[in-house]
Amino acid sequence: xxxxxxxxxxxxxxxxxxxxAMEPAHPGWGYVRAFAEAAMVGGLADxxxxxxxFRHPLGxxxxxxxxxxxxxxxxxxxxASFLRQNFLIPSVVARRMRRLDLAGAAGRFLAAPGAxxxxxxxxxxxxxxxxADIVGALDAERLGGMVRSAAAQKLRAIDVAPxxxxxxxxxxxxxxxxxxxxxxxxWLGRALLANEDxxxxxxxERAGSVLRWTGLDETLANKILDGLYRLIDEVxxxxxxxxRDKAEAxxxxxxxxxxxxxxxxxxxxxxKDEVIDSPAVGAWLxxxxxxxxxxxxxxxxxxxxxxxxxxxxxxxxxxxTLQSEPRLARTINIFARRAAVGVAAxxxxxxxxxxxxxxxGWDAVTVTNRLEQAVGRDLQYIRVNGTLVGGLxxxxxxxxxxxx
Length: 404
Fold this sequence. Notes:
Layout lengths: L1 H21 L5 H27 L12 H4 L1 H15 L3 H9 L3 H10 L4 H22 L2 H18 L2 H14 L4 H17 L1 H12 L1 H6 L1 H22 L4 H19 L1 H16 L1 H23 L1 H5 L2 H15 L1 H36 L2 H40 L1
């Protein structure tokens, strides 16, 4: 647009020279000359005004030119003050947020009925691409290390012993420990059967040479094994067996100690930390992060497929609920309003300082270029309008002068 404005000014200059040369041939050229002459004056005046905002016209240090570079610090302070007074005051934020129905808007977007479906799809695709680009650009290994470290830190912060004690208490109260006891008894029976030869060898070694010479060591081993098998079978089949009662009492005592015994809690947590620090758990956490990252990228790159399943149904149902439950919507709106007011109260001054310090940190050339890129096109229209309006005014004055 700058070339158009400059070209129009040059065209008026050429038209002025041509009309001045042709004016003796016909008086009508006087009107053309007056139009072109005034248009040049108007165009030059507006060129000077527009240029003076950003730099010195023709590089000459004329007073009151290069206004923006000379006043960039004051502009930054004024912009920050404007943001603070009109947007970041808690009362202003609360008043503006009170007019917004965020829950209703979110409900309509999630449900996406009828004509809103296409709009929601575009927004979803755009947001998904942004998420995919951000996740893909991040250092996967470094981010994975951060995730693993954060997860491990959270796990270390959990006092697991009381939780285990409470879970064991709840399991005993509802007789959910019985399958555990049955499994332990079955495991003992299978372990005894699998290691019968080892047990016989141990009994034979400790029986002495006399029993081995007489063959009584084999009889003794059979008696011991038969007794153990019979005991395991009785415990397995009799729910009221005394050994079961002792085992249950031991579990109750263990649950109590997990909740109350600091020494046991310390040992449990130490064991937990050793497990967390083990390479196997580290590899497991890395695997979880890798799977989560791939799933996030897959869902972000194909949002329609990701939203077509249960997740999409759940979000659509949430959107319908937000529209049909005014109490829930009101609660969400109140929470959003309080959150926004809290952010304004806690970080308003910091945001203002950030804006002011950022503008102050820019050099004059950066400020000039950014503002000129933002409003330069409109300013060039001012030059074009100034050229044409100036020409019309000059033509009108020439006509009036000729008539009177």
